[in-house]
């Protein structure tokens, strides 16, 4: 068949979710001895690496984590119960809550955990060469920067009458906005 190659975006999009499901499952197995899930580990990593010099609010953490404030609060409550962090009121604004890591996160710096981490990453990226992993990391970080900077879009793609352009239905504003153009 001649013509344009198939659009790889749907394949990449779907594959990313399937890979994430597998990594989530594998991560849960590796983290089980610590009583953590992959989602909890990720929240700890976001707080520790993304806000190293300060205690972020739940809202700031949710934006960096890529989820709702309510979802992050539920994950943080589980981490608080396990002793990995505290949810504390903001001294300047009692309506806001901040996340404060405890010393228990130091477990990730132990030689035993470092060895487990190296083994896990070796297993997870087994078939990729280090330059390919670096390229993948670069592509994912660039994509994340773009996706995270855009407002959430509700609805599904629709084709406008008398137009071949695809738009995203945006019911929260009662209008449609053009789909971001492909580069």
How many beta-strand segments?
5
Beta-strand portion reads 5-15%
Q: Would you identify the regions where 5 or more consecutive residues have pLDDT less than 50? A: 156-183
- In CATH, what is the class of the largest domain? Mainly Alpha
Radius of gyration (CA) equals 20 Å
Describe the strand arrangement of the main beta sheet, using strand numbers: 3-4-5
Element order, helices and strands? HHHHEEHHEEE
Report the average pLDDT across residues. Answer: 84
Main sheet attributes: strand count, strand direction, barrel closure: 3 strands, antiparallel
What does this structure look like?
Helix content is 50%, strand content 12%. It contains six helices and five strands, in the order ααααββααβββ. The strands form two sheets. A three-stranded antiparallel sheet has the order 3-4-5, with no helix packed on it. A two-stranded antiparallel sheet has the order 1-2. Strand 3 (157-159) and strand 4 (166-170) form a beta hairpin. The radius of gyration is 20 Å and the shape is globular.
Structural key phrases:
183 residues; two-stranded antiparallel ribbon; alpha+beta; 50% helix; disordered C terminus; Arc Repressor Mutant, subunit A
